[in-house]
Design a protein that fits this description.
It is a single chain. The chain is an alpha+beta fold. Helix content is 28%, strand content 37%. The protein has 2 helices and 6 strands; from the N terminus they run H-H-E-E-E-E-E-E. The chain has helices at 3-24, 27-41; strands at 55-68, 75-81, 86-92, 105-115, 118-122, 125-129. It has a 5-stranded mixed barrel with strand order 1-2-3-5-4. It starts with a helix and ends in a 5-residue tail after the last strand. Mean pLDDT is 80; it is low at 7-12.
């Protein structure tokens, strides 16, 4: 039996495994995998791997945007998701930022802090990506 013939069953079983895996995963799991692949391709750090008080660059999709009205300083809060975990982005003194809305794909850079166990960036620099993966 040649080496190519020995490798073929593994390739076919790998293909079968990928196909059945794709058919049995939920849409949310498939989307999460695509987001993780996009973030990796763009050089972002996975949110699940962020370290407290370290600078990081993260890529992901905005899942929600809310305004926290405060008496002294309003805060715009966006939840970014990269397929591994969520990251809160907080812009102090802002009521809105044009282009940042649910579904927008962003690359953000800033210092990470953990607020009640959730990774958070305050006033991060950001780039709005026209489409995922670009």
């Amino acid at each position: 039996m040649t080496e190519a013939e020995r490798a073929r069953p593994r390739e076919e079983s790998g293909l079968l495994h990928r196909l059945t895996s794709r058919l049995t995963k939920s849409q949310a799991e498939l989307d999460a995998g695509e987001l993780q692949a996009d973030a990796d391709r763009l050089g972002g750090t996975p949110i699940a791997d962020l370290v407290d008080r370290q600078n990081a660059s993260v890529c992901g999709s905005v899942r929600s945007v809310t305004l926290r009205p405060r008496v002294n300083v309003p805060a715009l809060v966006a939840e970014l998701y990269d397929g591994s975990q969520r990251l809160n982005l907080v812009w102090l003194g802002r009521r809105e930022i044009k282009g940042i809305e649910t579904g927008t794909y962003l690359t953000v850079r800033g210092r990470v802090t953990f607020q009640r166990g959730v990774p958070t960036m305050f006033n991060p620099a950001y780039d709005i990506k026209p489409t995922r993966g670009h």
